[in-house]
Amino acid sequence: YLSDFDMQGGCSPYTDSGKAKYWYTKAHEKGCPQASYILGRIHYQAREYKLAFSAFLKGADKDYPPAVYRLAKMYQRGEGVTRNLSEYKRLLEAARSKGHIFAKRDLARLLLTGKFGITSMVRGAMMLLGLWSDLALLIGRAVRRGPTFDERVLA
What we know:
Shape: flat
Number of helices: 9
Helix content: over 70%
Number of strands: 0
Distance between the termini: 20 Å
Strand content: under 5%
């Protein structure tokens, strides 16, 4: 029920969401960042934003890129926390530095808005070009080794 919940977005016919939530909570309490991230997703899907924020925060404290990215998105949208674009940017920077591709995309998009100055716009444009190169490398790896999913980069 745990892997089905994670891989099927919580909608597998074999999913027991109560058990999944129970075991992910246990692992989260023991400090497992992956469990904190998945627990955050479970709470987020249930629109329990404060609980999701808390779970993502614990995963982010362990530098787990998907948790950092999801926490950033909550700051962007003001879900479970006061909307804060500076914190959104800081967290995107942190996730990007760990190789999270969606964080890199979102950070480039944010910088291109011009809200952080002209130099940030140039930096965003350069980041966007780098993003294309990252995508080409991911596609190249998938072609050579077969499709793989690295949640630290793509979740």
